[in-house]
């Protein structure tokens, strides 16, 4: 069994390293850290135990990656406009695509890049991890994976034998793995958390703990979650109100966490706004559902994002201000 | 004609100085800068010409202020909980109260502090000014004053002979003065600008020019204005949509401006949230009108305000986070 990892960051590096450690052959596509990782391998600092992955099949060019059974897409979604150039050429016909990316709308993007009928899976990572120095990944907390099969418009596909096979690889790699018969439900449910907490962490410069401890922000997070629930309902996905309350409670008890969007912001990287807010808002608006708070959060974040980026990281449609 | 100025900052200092320069007797209540102003007077750096006011009737204690015909209230509204101690004792029976404060709901606060039937006027300052070093006030732009009479629940009082007299003082002091037959309308119309631009300037760390140049924030500002319009309508105050469009256009052409709320934030002072957002939201909620964007802006600003204040500037109800 061979895996390719497109994007060797906090997610791709961590999960790819676990797969290789379990005995699978894994090929990593790298950019900035290619030479370093080629020479020194990957160092994983994990709450489950540190380990050093060496040697590593490192690639600077997708064309050198041999044909693999599974291709993990672990780029930031803001880089998806480059996907066509970052996927190995054989992907259109061979290999299962499994995206580990955030938000909603990444699977249909992938499906459009490959021949019709090719298998596209979505993976949701419930993990607190971030990059350190070159070739170093820090895994703070959690680490489970939920996998579901993508069907046009997020039609539920049930649990297929392929999903069961995938799960067995991951479990052998010591990754707690769940199978989602309805990938759309899983994606919307994750947005329930990502929309308020990723979004507000940037606007307020706050950790999860600071946000839920403030009654005003606790109330706002709940109201944003309610709007995510309405957006999901507009797509035929029913999220029980109890899920929302449970998520608020568990956020209040987790260790203070700087969200991934806040980390991107602090590093002056583009924010994953399309996947977390833009696409969900667009599909809900398509059904005539108005979501004032989510829209306002999106408006605020687009402004903050544009004014935050480093030169050269600007989107082509940047508006001068 | 004698005036007292309670709060000698960017507003009270500027307008009080103009009144004294025109020949009226003006008594200034000061706190931090008392000794400096007592000794050196006030220096006004104005786009209409600088001037030095000396000598000045400076007071550190409201009890030393002689009975005046008019008492100008020019404190930040965040200090209004101290008003009872900052007003001269004769105010309950003598003198006309004229508040130059921001937002909505300050006149009923004043009315409750004095004997029933005492005259309370509201003044709206359209001015860009700020404090500099001790005893120094910088007046950048605009400078007009709109005065209206307060009646219970902002019932329109029309233009009274008293208002005409007041206007004649101000005009002699070279202040462009307008009379508002409906103070509530004037207050709500000013909120149309203050809610989006004061509020968003803090959340986004942006000038007016940066905000209106961003199409997302321009859209959000219009949506917030629309909610202010709905809130006003719930109080029987009709604001034409044309006012809103005109205000957006004039903001786009004014010089880049750091709003007063952003200046307070940068100086780590408490923000005028009750007058600009809390009270307007409360009266609209009282009529069953939901205002999701204004509410969200209020929630965000309450969090930012609490985490921004200097030690000792915290409100007693501070929530630890």
From TrEMBL, chains A, B:
GO biological-process terms attached to the record: pantothenate biosynthetic process
Enzyme class: oxidoreductase
Protein known as: 2-dehydropantoate 2-reductase
Function: Catalyzes the NADPH-dependent reduction of ketopantoate into pantoic acid.
One GO cellular component term: cytoplasm
Keyword Membrane: no
E.C. number(s) listed in UniProt: 1.1.1.169
Keyword Chaperone: no
Biological pathway: Cofactor biosynthesis; (R)-pantothenate biosynthesis; (R)-pantoate from 3-methyl-2-oxobutanoate: step 2/2
Catalytic activity: (R)-pantoate + NADP(+) = 2-dehydropantoate + NADPH + H(+)
